[in-house]
Amino acid sequence: MSEIDIDELRSRFGRRLRIGFVGGGRDSVIGETHLAAMRVDGFFELYAGVFSIDPTVSAATARAEFIDANRVYGSFNEMAEKEAQREDGIEVVLIATPPHIHFEAAKAFLTRGIDVICEKPIAVNREQAVQLDDLARQHGRLFCLTHCYTGYPMVREARAMVRSGQLGKIRILEAELAAGDPGVSFEPENPADRHWRFRENIMGKGAILGEVASHAHHLLHYIYGEEISAVSAEMSTFVPRRAVYDNAYLTTRYAGGVRGRIWGSYIAAGNDHGLCFRIYGELGGLKWHQEDPEILWFKPIGGKAQRIARGYQDLSFWASRGSRFRPGHPEGYALAFANLYADFGCAMMARQLGLSHEQFYDALPNTRDGIVTMSLIEAAVASNDNDGHWTSIPKTSSASNT
Ligand SMILES: NC(=O)c1ccc[n+]([C@@H]2O[C@H](COP(=O)([O-])OP(=O)(O)OC[C@H]3O[C@@H](n4cnc5c(N)ncnc54)[C@H](O)[C@@H]3O)[C@@H](O)[C@H]2O)c1
């Protein structure tokens, strides 16, 4: 790969990119992670936001971040309109609201010439994901979908190993995100106290697919690159008073006889985050667990297990590029998340300077990944409604918006 020198890119650009937030306020789970990740490499400066649905929380978040009160807005539409009119307006927005707001918010910014970083799941259905893909292309915008686990260097190493054929022909792909802490394993007595994740009106009864199974699915998709062609799903609800499914088993088929499984759960009691994958080819297998993220295990068939650790010089391009510290100095979740911001920041700067930005997109999930996941989700819901009947999945034909 002919790489643009990143220091030179940054010095030619000469300043940080101006970002705004929709959601991600002090009342949110994920906002703080974005604030930390965005600042690690210094590509972005926060200038504006509608940080919360609650104006008091939004204002408090803005004060804590030293944001000019004139740039704290009452709605994302107002923010998109006013920021687009400013000479020093934001160039990119983070959307970190609950998923049913992603589509309208992303549309408001894309159509006004502002790039988008959007939390997963991209939207509530495939149709909306396709529309966002079209809008990004029509308006010439960049879009990053924050499937943050793709930022781990050892996930990127697994991708390089699978894509370069080190495992031989791939046969089996399995991943799970099976959480089980008290926050997701119990439901409050009063339905009014339910979190939006457990309300049917937000993402339907199969919301668990977008909330947790999507990460497991996306890891496999990111590493292997091929789309699932058919799915058989069984979803269940274990927790009393719960209105949505809290466990999902998906058995999957890929072209060429490749098979897989995805497990998404809120009721794996005792688990913390519970994200991992196992991939097997003709020549060996790979295993990775997010709670021990610096290590990727490779076991060649008939040979000794190899413990591949982050930070060594013989790792692949993307795994090395995503590492900051020497081996033995664990990096972890925030720095993996920061890799998405760093790559997206490079892509934005390169494009604004008229340089090729595609090379920075290579490792980033975008609208196309959103369509692939929403296609799986819709097929899995249909399969579950039909007693696990095998349901085919349309191929994502549209090109990525690079
Ligand atoms: N990438 C990950 O690992 C990860 C982890 C957690 C959550 N998420 C995703 O991030 C998104 C947010 O999840 P969360 O757990 O932080 O939710 P949350 O409910 O904790 O926070 C949502 C935030 O959005 C704000 N909000 C709601 N409606 C708004 C509106 N119309 N305008 C502006 N702000 C609004 C809320 O006030 C709050 O600040 C979801 O899509 C979720 O799936 C991703």
TrEMBL record:
Q: Which Pfam families match?
A: GFO_IDH_MocA, GFO_IDH_MocA_C3
- Signal sequence annotation: none
Q: Which InterPro entries match?
A: Gfo/Idh/MocA-like_OxRdtase_N, Gfo/Idh/MocA_oxidoreduct, GFO_IDH_MocA-like_dom, NAD(P)-bd_dom_sf
Annotated GO MF terms: nucleotide binding
Domain Gfo/Idh/MocA-like oxidoreductase N-terminal, chain residue ranges per copy: 17-144
- Where in the numbering of this chain does the GFO/IDH/MocA-like oxidoreductase domain appear? 155-286
PANTHER family (UniProt xref): CONSERVED EXPRESSED OXIDOREDUCTASE (EUROFUNG), OXIDOREDUCTASE
Q: Could you identify this protein by its name?
A: Oxidoreductase
What's the source species for this entry?
SAR324 cluster bacterium
Q: What is the lineage of its organism?
A: Bacteria, Deltaproteobacteria, SAR324 cluster
